[in-house]
Design a protein that fits this description.
The complex is a heterodimer of chains A (236) and B (290).
Chain A (H helix, E strand, L loop, with lengths): L2 E12 L2 E12 L3 E5 L6 H8 L7 E6 L2 E2 L5 H4 L4 E4 L11 H8 L5 H14 L1 H5 L10 H13 L5 E5 L7 H16 L3 E6 L2 H7 L2 E6 L2 E7 H6 L1 H7 L3
Parallel strand pairs in A: 3-8, 3-9, 6-7, 7-8
Antiparallel strand pairs in A: 1-2, 1-4, 4-5, 9-10
Helix pairs in contact in A: 3-6
Chain B lengths: L1 H28 L6 H17 L5 H24 L7 H23 L4 E2 L10 E3 L2 E3 L1 H23 L1 H11 L1 H6 L4 H26 L2 E2 L5 H14 L4 H22 L4 H15 L14
Antiparallel strand pairs in B: 1-4, 2-3
Helix pairs in contact in B: 1-5, 1-8, 1-9, 1-10, 2-3, 2-4, 2-8, 2-9, 3-8, 5-6, 5-8, 6-8, 9-10, 9-11, 10-11
Chain lengths: 236, 290
Amino acid sequence: MGTMLKVEDLQVYYGSIHAIKGVSFEVNEGEIVTLIGANGAGKSTTLNTVGGLLKPRSGKITFEGKDLHGMAANKVVSEGMALCPEGRRVFQHMTVLENLEMGAYTRSNAEAAETLEHVYELFPRLKERYRQVAGTLSGGEQQMLAMGRALMSRPKLMMLDEPSMGLAPILVQQIFDIIVDMNKQGTTILLVEQNAQMALSIANRAYVLETGRITMSGDAKELAASEEVKKAYLGG
Amino acid sequence: MLANLINGISLGSVYAIIALGYTMVYGIAKMLNFAHGDVIMVGGYIAFCSIAYLGWPPALAVLAAVVVCTMLGIVIERLAYKPLRNATSLAVLITAIGVSYFLQNAALLIWTSNTKVFPNIFANLPGLTLGDMQIAPVTLITVLANIVIMVALTLFTGKTKMGKAMRAVSEDKGAATLMGINVNRTISLTFAIGSGLAAIAGVLLCTAYPTLMPTTGAMPGIKAFTAAVFGGIGSIPGAMLGGILLGVIEIFGKAYISTQLSDAIVFSVLIIVLLVKPTGLLGRKVNEKV
């Protein structure tokens, strides 16, 4: 299992605000890695920078040995990385099928058709509702759509930003089960979550982010058992 | 009565074609391109020069106008609007008005303020006789062109990958980027299509109302904007409906109320729509995210 994604000394600014202060981490092929931390710790910023939506001031992002520095976000997808953004951001006025087609924008129609079957297997709900306008789906369904849409590009690495946000506990469980399934089928996962308990329960390794810095890292089970993490993120 | 209705639909079809450009650009770039009307004028001049000075056949002249305006649209977007992608909407609006004046004055320099008389390029085509009423070929072609453009655009945005990508960009640029869609190129394409349509509208307008001067595009541009808002800005069928209704209202206003007041009537429509239904007839509610 080689290193798939390597982030070194990442520095990101929002105007004059220093949001990410030298974050380094790596994701190995086949892993589920999670970044946990409080609101505003810089989890989403980190993910958006890796995905190419934000430009880092300095630092290095290497994906499968290739330097992604300065690569436009729309090119990153073709490299085999997909970001399922915070707040789902499905195309509300487009149908479920059209959303999924957009996910496969960089691929040929034949390839997309094949992946579509696979996505429908993983999310039978989406198949049932393929003609429905995405804005009329429930929150859980929209999350499934956002994940399915990201899968349509056939990513080697899937980055998920707060997939549990605003969902009922039973749905959260369901979404996390699907994340584990995706991983078993060969997709490496980088997961950002506020729901630290759930995230640590499925991850292999974890990094704890605090005000733009990584303060702890290690095996997910060990971190879940550590007193510090328990106190700060697991409610005792 | 029927003659007025047909004239109204014809004029409205021109407004509709112009309004489509407004609405598509608004939908995708979230800006009002007030220079859009002046692109119509440029289209008119290009067609006029091709016919009058170069002796080209009308079909070729229309093609030349479309090509030039398409490129003009792309250049305007690249030079004037793209640098303002993250600026406030007021800055973009003022720039658009600036571009509008620039085009008008550039036309004044090139073509002088002398009114050109646009040739009737459909003169050899047969008209249609309904009872004792004659329908001019330009009227028929305008309505037909409007329908063809409407169907083509609906198919394009609904069925093709590029068209769907355009809708995706108009909804959420960030999410569209994550799909691998090149947002800048999509915006360019939208300006290209809108400006190409403006050229067609320019030729149709100048054939029906054959006086051409540097300010020719300004008034139809503003009225088409009114039509786009009336129908629901951002909506393609809305632009069509708004355009035709506005054309009919204008012609009926002229015929039955007052020739002088017809423009006032048209713009009252804008004010009333904004008061009663700010999203327009077919517009959808925009949920502003905070």
